[in-house]
């Protein structure tokens, strides 16, 4: 009866009397027998007080409308956060059917209706379409880009999944990284099928295939074949390239024998929860910091070196526990391990640096120059140093034959015309490549106001010597313009080189008007990072999603929708953070002009507060 009393407008005009047996009208004083319904009272109000009843009903509708609007906003916010929680965790969709989860939601808001699994899938697809539209707008000023693509066979036995990222520098010289999606590959992992998949994904976002300049990948033959067949540049992932050197070093018999004992300790700690707890407690008592020696993933770059470092850091804990005496090293083995770590630490640091998002492919060649200088200065009598020297030189020389890697070094004012970086390559050779590239990718001047260009006049002397002479002179003018920029660029670099911690794109943003051709070249070649670590991290996320027994029926489309929703959430979060930062800065200094792209997924270039990613020796 309480709900009936609260919901009906008649109780504004009537009150119960005589022990709830009768009701009395507050307006005129008439009484009626109460039979647990409001029909008689409504009839009385409609006949005797119609205006008052109409007014009360209108007020009630207005209150209910405001309440419904508030509940609608609450439902939308709650559902959006539920979608993000599912997109960034391993919780299955059927969790929303959990009885206690429903009770929990009802306690927070009795009017809230929890989404069903099917509704969640529909919302995921809807948000994915929003993400595609949002990214399609961002790539509107894309001129040239690099892609990072890689495959994964973790769950699907005969079917491969391929993920695609796009990197480019926009017209404001801000570096952009965009996730385009993850798709199932139709058929075998051939270059042709990979090309079809990439073409399908970039068309979804309105990107022309001709705008792809190249790709940064590992040494997979199918990806390299795809790039070569389409005349695209290929940059070998620096982190993968350096990790191959460390794999060769760890295979040396003496080193491998010691690392085998280190791996046995790691395997024992991963199996025994009791011993692992004892080990952690002992390390805490000894105030030993760092990760205990547990196994790394087989795909983890330089995992053998990191495990060896963790082993030596916690060596006191190993010697202090009786159960771990079998994993101790003798003096010769300890000497081998110490030497191995000492020689490979710069390589490990280079891999960690290459895995960062805030890097540029222009840093690969200087990084190898730094590594080669370090290892060639060591005692070459040991087998480890000889192998590191030869492998480093081999891969260093390979990068020195990569045109786009050299052009990137040239366009980075931190390294351009720096001695000791190019070894046998001359800067003049790179200058010629820069001229050729600028000539081959000259921008076509826009049409006139009518939108059409006037037709060229026909000449009767197209093949005369005079016409060819004039044409050659016309063609040489842009070349001379590029050469003039090159001369001035060298002069300004030699007069004052930017610091190693500076962002190279800031230099070109400030000097874009002075060097229009070279700044455009810099936008093209400086968009790629050092490594394809972002794709590897994405596949780690995929592994977490599908390896769980609770999500073993996750389809490729749903996985793609989950990842796109997570990316959309990252875009919105970054947008809010930048907007809040801009508002706080505008409150402090209203004269500052803050006009930044709020949807960049890269660290803000304008702040220029990142630590240097340049090799220490340079």
TrEMBL record:
<dbReference type="InterPro" id="IPR003656">
    <property type="entry name" value="Znf_BED"/>
</dbReference>
<feature type="domain" description="BED-type">
    <location>
        <begin position="5"/>
        <end position="56"/>
    </location>
</feature>
<dbReference type="Pfam" id="PF02892">
    <property type="entry name" value="zf-BED"/>
</dbReference>
<dbReference type="GO" id="GO:0009791">
    <property type="term" value="P:post-embryonic development"/>
</dbReference>
<feature type="region of interest" description="Disordered">
    <location>
        <begin position="50"/>
        <end position="75"/>
    </location>
</feature>
<dbReference type="GO" id="GO:0046983">
    <property type="term" value="F:protein dimerization activity"/>
</dbReference>
<keyword id="KW-0805">Transcription regulation</keyword>
<keyword id="KW-0863">Zinc-finger</keyword>
<keyword id="KW-0479">Metal-binding</keyword>
<dbReference type="InterPro" id="IPR036236">
    <property type="entry name" value="Znf_C2H2_sf"/>
</dbReference>
<dbReference type="Pfam" id="PF05699">
    <property type="entry name" value="Dimer_Tnp_hAT"/>
</dbReference>
<feature type="compositionally biased region" description="Acidic residues">
    <location>
        <begin position="583"/>
        <end position="596"/>
    </location>
</feature>
<dbReference type="InterPro" id="IPR012337">
    <property type="entry name" value="RNaseH-like_sf"/>
</dbReference>
<dbReference type="InterPro" id="IPR008906">
    <property type="entry name" value="HATC_C_dom"/>
</dbReference>
<keyword id="KW-0804">Transcription</keyword>
<keyword id="KW-0238">DNA-binding</keyword>
<dbReference type="GO" id="GO:0008270">
    <property type="term" value="F:zinc ion binding"/>
</dbReference>
<protein>
    <recommendedName>
        <fullName>BED-type domain-containing protein</fullName>
    </recommendedName>
</protein>
<keyword id="KW-0539">Nucleus</keyword>
<feature type="region of interest" description="Disordered">
    <location>
        <begin position="575"/>
        <end position="618"/>
    </location>
</feature>
<keyword id="KW-0862">Zinc</keyword>
<dbReference type="GO" id="GO:0005634">
    <property type="term" value="C:nucleus"/>
</dbReference>
<dbReference type="InterPro" id="IPR052035">
    <property type="entry name" value="ZnF_BED_domain_contain"/>
</dbReference>
<dbReference type="GO" id="GO:0003677">
    <property type="term" value="F:DNA binding"/>
</dbReference>
<feature type="compositionally biased region" description="Polar residues">
    <location>
        <begin position="605"/>
        <end position="618"/>
    </location>
</feature>
